[in-house]
Design brief:
Structural class: alpha/beta
CATH superfamily of the largest domain: Glycosidases
Shape: globular
Distance between the termini: 58 Å
Number of strands: 34
CATH class of the largest domain: Alpha Beta
Number of helices: 23
Length: about 850
């Protein structure tokens, strides 16, 4: 037996630390097997680690991890010893571990461990250095929490591959220092891979000009991060969007010719192929994992671009599969295994039969579904390797929906385990100005828990263990604040935590009207105030920044709600002053608006500070425009009102002042898909497209054909409340027609009345015209809609006019909710969509 070497590591426990409750073991992920025994004095401020048969490099690396965690302090008197044991090095040591957990070596595998703390023995045993590392992470959490009972842990992962996938292309691009902190924290949660969604925020040497100057990862950055991750037994998995989602690169003049369409690179273009081969080859050399993800998801323009004739001849499946085969060869030359998203193959299952059998399919779904067979079984029945990919969806939200994320992670991983998934890759989609990784951590801890231990045994203690391991607190107030915020997801005004309430204008432009619905505001204010009370008393001792981001979101909602009430009141005050020819009351209104303006300025600086702490500068200036626009509107309004106070009556019309706010309890449809404008003075006869192949209810990105020209269906969100201003959107006033589409889902067939304000517009429901285009009806006009059970398709054909705008609502008291352009009547608000 090799000589035992002692490594002294001082482990400091802060003064005043409360021991963890006896009933909850403060370890996350929760171990597979735990036995808790008699009281035990907490491990003191110094530990001697002894290693039997360990190489010196192993002990040094483990010691470095403790030092990084702040657990290595100045030398103190030796108090207790923890032995590090690797199987097969000592029969005596193996027998000792077997006495606590028989057959442990075969049970824990390559990443598992046994941790024993009692009056007689204190040791961590594993088959590998990785297992010892993960055992130390559990010991770290116990020590930090002041654990004071005997304990035996036998632990191993439910899934061999446990990854996190972070979108760094469509929202914040993190600093290298931020990613390193993420790696450290993820490693404590026993996550063993990290990957990034990358469209254009990398800078390969072969094509250095497409990446933003102030928001990118260089090849040296990636190599540095790969090496850093390896210290934490983690791999960085390469990723590059290689088919669709290519608009950011194709929008640049040098690369535009490589496009099949404006959003999709051409698989048949030699320069496009050379570009992909070069970039992917460089990235394969920088990322240290043996896999590479070419993405290739959501290729909405398949068969719609300049190769349409070729695709029509060979078929979509072959066209798509041939491109994947090309990418497969590029990746294989770099001795990597190709990964790709599975959604297009699920839409065209014949693709699965055309591709190499060792491709790993990343099958994704982010909703809380009753069954995940749709996303799993096509791979299972062919014996193809697949990885389940749940989601923490932050896209176009002010905060990620943790209720949905928790249900999705639990359900998808359970189904994946039963079906034989090769692993878990939890995705984080930070698409939008308010998406921060620090807001995602509750979901990340949830994913880490279930990726390591799929058992439901300790689900009830998760929140307590989360607060203890993430923040070293036991007051529960972070979680209370978080799930108080989650109550907003079911309220129509803040449904799904959607960002559109932030995107709306506070005030109408001069000469225009703004429609707002404040019916839910008092309820939202009460929820937000409760959440702020919780988060301001959370008192995290670790990772304090998480609480700052949550508090920011609560403050944002608070300010938005206060603004809606105050400005609606300001409009009423102005109308009264106008009718009574009396301006004195406007002075108090000016002071209130100035106070509101100061609060937006303060929130802007908080946002800037949070962004700069986490991310590179890229896109910050654009995101700050959301604050600046509101600040400018308020400033301009106060200036106009100040001028009016000192001027002679009468007061001008409220619309001229920019204060024509109409408060209404009606639910106006603000989200639409728009296409056009078609260059014709009268509406075309087709419903959705002149080409019969596309004359079907559209999805975002679909094409409408008219007189040989393609028009894309674009997502639209009204910034004027319920008013859709087409003149402002299209910048044209005559000789054109636009189309607006939405869907209405009902749980039963029913007749409802639509109130439509749109001059000479035609209205269709499920292809049947219910409003002719010869009516001159600028004000609201009722029309009967006979809705069928299920999804109903609503289309407006809108000729240009002097005031080219429209408003649409249903005259009903039944609750209406929406996710983007998809509306639900009499909705069960517990049902939420992820996309």
């Amino acid at each position: 037996m090799k000589r035992i070497k002692a490594i002294l590591l001082g482990v400091l426990i802060g003064s005043g630390q409360n021991p963890a409750a006896a009933t909850t073991v403060p370890v996350l992920p929760y171990p597979q097997q735990v036995t808790v025994g008699d009281p035990l004095p907490p491990i003191g401020t110094a530990i001697a680690f002894t290693g039997s048969g360990l190489e010196s490099g192993v002990t040094k690396r483990l010691a470095a991890n403790w030092q990084l965690a702040g657990l290595n302090q100045a030398a103190q008197a030796l108090q207790q010893t923890v032995t590090l044991i690797v199987s097969g090095k000592s029969a005596k040591a193996n027998a000792l571990v077997d006495a606590y957990t028989a057959g442990w070596s075969g049970k824990v595998g390559a990443e598992g461990y046994v941790l024993v703390l009692n009056a007689r023995h204190k040791f961590i045993a594993a088959n590998t250095e990785t297992g010892l590392f993960y055992g130390l992470q559990s010991l770290k959490q116990l020590v930090r929490s002041g654990w004071n009972q005997e304990i035996t842990i036998t632990d191993w992962p439910s899934f061999a591959n446990r990854g996190i996938y972070d979108d760094i292309s469509r929202g914040p691009t993190p600093k290298v220092s931020t990613i390193k902190k993420q790696i450290e924290r993820l490693a404590e949660l026993k996550i063993n891979s990290l990957s990034f969604y990358i469209e254009h925020v990398v800078q390969p040497r072969s094509y250095p000009d497409f990446a933003p100057a102030d928001g990118k990862l260089t090849m040296d950055d990636i190599r540095e991060l790969s090496a850093y991750a390896a210290q934490f037994h983690m791999q960085l998995v390469g990723s590059f969007q290689s088919f669709g989602h290519f608009a950011n690169i194709l929008s640049q003049p040098r690369y535009q010719p490589m496009g099949e369409t404006s959003t999709m690179i051409s698989p048949l273009d030699p320069k496009a192929r050379a570009f992909l081969a070069s970039v992917i080859t460089e990235l394969c050399g920088a990322f240290n994992a043996p896999y590479f993800n070419v993405n290739c998801d959501e290729t909405f323009d398949l068969g719609k671009g300049k190769s349409k004739a070729y695709v029509d001849r060979v078929g979509v499946a072959k066209y798509y599969a041939d491109h994947i085969k090309f990418l497969y060869d590029v990746v294989k030359k770099q001795h990597k295994q190709l990964m790709m998203w599975g959604d297009i193959a699920l839409q065209h299952e014949e693709i699965l039969d055309l591709l190499p059998k060792d491709i790993i399919y990343l099958t994704w779904e982010y909703g809380d579904q009753k069954s995940y067979d749709t996303w799993i079984q096509p791979f299972v029945k062919r014996g193809l390797p697949f990885v389940v990919c749940p989601g923490i969806v932050n896209s176009n939200r002010l905060f990620p929906d943790m209720v949905m994320a928790r249900g999705n992670i639990n359900g998808f991983l359970k189904a994946g385990k039963q079906a034989g998934t090769a692993g878990v890759l939890t995705t984080i989609w930070d698409e939008g100005p308010m998406c921060f990784f620090h807001s995602d951590w509750y979901g990340v801890y949830t994913a880490a828990e279930k990726s390591w231990n799929i058992s439901q045994a300790e689900t009830g203690s998760f929140n307590e263990r989360f607060e203890r391991t993430a923040y070293n607190t036991d007051n529960g107030n972070y979680v209370k604040a978080l799930f108080t915020l989650m109550e907003l997801r079911g309220i129509p005004l803040t449904y799904n935590l959607a960002e559109q309430i932030w995107l709306q204008k506070l005030l109408p432009d001069s000469g225009k009207k703004l429609i707002i619905n404040n019916q839910d505001v008092p309820k939202i204010q009460a929820i937000v105030n409760t959440g702020l009370t919780y988060i301001r008393t959370a008192e995290p001792q670790l990772n304090r920044t998480d609480a700052q981001f949550l508090e920011f979101t609560l403050q944002q909602y608070q300010l938005l709600m206060d603004s809606r009430l105050l400005l609606a009141q300001a409009a009423d005050t102005y109308r009264t002053a106008q009718s009574q020819h009396h301006t004195a009351a406007l002075q108090a209104t000016i002071q209130a608006i100035e106070s509101l303006q100061a609060r937006y300025q303060s929130l802007k600086e908080t946002y800037r500070s949070l962004w700069e702490a986490e991310n590179q500068p890229y896109y910050l200036a654009i995101n700050l425009n959301g604050f600046d626009g509101k600040i400018t509107q308020l400033q301009q309004l106060t200036t106009r009102l100040q001028t009016l106070i000192s001027s002679s009556p009468p007061l001008p019309a409220i619309a001229a002042v920019g204060l024509d706010i109409k408060a209404s309890n009606a639910f106006y449809f603000q989200n639409w898909l728009l296409t056009g404008p078609f260059k014709t003075p009268t509406p075309p006869r087709f419903l959705y497209s002149e080409d019969p192949a596309y004359n079907v209810p559209p999805k975002p990105g679909d094409m409408a054909q008219f007189q040989g020209k393609s028009y894309r269906w674009q997502k639209y969100i009204s910034q004027e409340g319920g008013i859709v201003d087409l003149s402002d959107y299209y910048k044209t006033a005559s000789g054109a027609v636009a189309y607006a589409y939405c869907s209405i889902t009902t749980d039963s067939a029913q007749a409802v009345t639509a109130q439509v304000s749109a001059q000479a517009a035609e209205l269709f429901v499920n292809g049947v015209q219910v409003k002719p285009g010869n009516a001159v009806d600028q004000d609201e006009t009722p029309f009967a809609l006979n809705l069928t059970k299920g999804v109903n398709h609503v289309l407006l054909k809108l000729p240009a006019s002097a005031s080219w705008n429209f408003a649409f609502r249903l005259d009903t008291r039944k609750p209406i909710t929406n996710h983007k352009h998809k509306y639900s009547l009499n909705a069960k608000t517990s049902v939420h969509e992820a996309d």
